[in-house]
């Protein structure tokens, strides 16, 4: 019954207005499938979440969850690359610094585009927290 209640809450969540809102929601959904992480999330206070303490719990989630998070991150990196390419195509400037463009996306570690690590969760939390 409790899981049905959580599902109901997910449906009612308003759009955050963040350009990475879908990625954020998918990461949360996947993390909540891990019982240990879901329990930690439910008992953590806002300061534990913002400080990155909760991000360290990512090392304890199941392999299946980590694999799904890796896949989500690769999809988000691909989406961001398409945005950058579209921006570059519209500007038609060959002097664009690709790394500088990637750095503007503070919600993930662009230096490691293949795996979702505790640093990624920490960066996602901090990016959302800075917005609110």
TrEMBL record:
It is found in: Cytoplasm; Golgi apparatus; Membrane; Secreted. Residues 7-128 form the NUCB1-like N-terminal domain. Its main location: cytoplasm. GO terms for cellular component: endoplasmic reticulum-Golgi intermediate compartment; extracellular exosome; Golgi apparatus; membrane. One of its GO terms (molecular function) is calcium ion binding. It comes from the Eukaryota. Keywords: Cytoplasm, Golgi apparatus, Membrane, Phosphoprotein, Repeat, Secreted, Signal. Transmembrane segments: none annotated. This is NUCB2 protein. It comes from Furnarius figulus.
């Amino acid at each position: 019954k409790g899981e049905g209640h959580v599902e109901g809450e997910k449906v009612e969540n308003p759009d955050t207005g963040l350009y990475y809102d879908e990625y954020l929601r998918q990461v949360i959904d996947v993390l909540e499938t891990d019982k240990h992480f879901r329990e930690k999330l439910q008992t953590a206070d806002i300061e534990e979440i913002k400080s990155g303490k909760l991000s360290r719990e990512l090392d304890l989630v199941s392999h299946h969850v980590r694999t799904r998070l890796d896949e989500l991150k690769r999809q988000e990196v691909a989406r961001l690359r398409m945005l950058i390419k579209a921006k570059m195509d519209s500007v038609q400037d060959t002097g664009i610094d690709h790394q500088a463009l990637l750095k503007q996306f503070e919600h993930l570690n662009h230096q490691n585009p293949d795996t979702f690590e505790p640093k990624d969760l920490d960066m996602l939390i901090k990016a959302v927290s800075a917005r609110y």
